[in-house]
Design brief:
It contains five helices and no strands. The two termini are 14 Å apart. It is globular. The chain has 131 residues and is an all-alpha fold.
Length: 131
């Protein structure tokens, strides 16, 4: 499997996470932590898929900031995603287990917005570079 087809699989999985987060918004009560987690997971897969696309083996980490910095080594345009990565990184681990992290529905809107920013940058970049 070449890097382009593998990165496409990562992009497809990221889109499933994003769609799941959007779908869960309709639940009552809104599963805030799970939506935020899916947004982080989508962003993580988008960044890892980007690295794979450019023949870089992604590290096993949930740290979106680290992943974004690695992507910046390939394309400085990824710098525009740092703030989104800062917002989403805590949702990769902290919301999966009981913690003192208090979230509400405004956090879901923020997480979705940040995830869409990352998706909106990565998808066209990978589509444009597919040959």
């Amino acid at each position: 499997m070449n890097g382009n087809s593998l990165s496409r699989e990562w992009l497809d999985m990221a889109e499933m996470d994003l769609k799941a987060a959007e779908y869960l918004l309709g639940m009552r009560p809104v599963p805030v932590e799970i939506i935020c987690y899916h947004c982080e997971q989508a962003a993580e897969k988008l960044l890892k898929g980007s690295l794979i696309h450019f023949d870089v083996v992604p590290p096993k980490t949930h740290d979106l900031i680290q992943l974004c910095k690695l992507c910046c080594n390939i394309d400085m345009g990824f710098e525009a995603l740092i703030d989104a990565c800062v917002e989403l990184t805590p949702y990769g681990v902290q919301v999966r287990y009981p913690s003192n992290l208090e979230l509400d529905e405004s956090d879901t809107r923020c997480a979705l917005r940040q995830c869409r920013i990352i998706h909106g940058f990565v998808q066209p970049l990978l589509d444009q570079n597919e040959t």
